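hi! just following up on the protien thing from before. the input was this:
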Amino acid sequence: MWLLRHAHTEDSRAGHKDADRRLTSRGEEQAREVSDVLGSEGVRVDAVMCSSAVRARQTLSLLGVSSSATDVAERYYTAGTDSLLEAIRELSDEVKTALVIGHAPALPGIAYELADREVSEPAAWDAIDGRYPAATLARLDFDGTWANLDSAALTDVRTPTTTAG
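and the predicted 3d structure came back as:
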């Protein structure tokens, strides 16, 4: 499973809804970097769960990831950690690799809740310990079914390298 926090966004604007915030040019470049990472890793995504917020949908679009099981929904935008994890546990066992694109604090909460420090890569854990910046991509590996997912190995974390805006 891959967890991706949406890329860098514009600041909140008076009179505009949070869900309508868009990616900045920096965020667009970050999303393209994530796309490159997924491509270089040879990641094949069976299911995508993406927040309905504009910034999350833009991030997904720039990834170039395609899956017949792409679910873009408000429930992922408004989800807390528990409800997002519940939605992940509803995935079909036919799904081998899922990509979840969402927001803090729910998405980082999934990584913190599931990652077992005993079997996780120390460098991966250190990369998100106490932080999960925009465009951070984390890989969690586990054995078993989605329905029984309660622990995983945090095996890789990629944080954004783009700093120009």
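The longest helix spans residues 25-40.
The radius of gyration is 15 Å.
cheers
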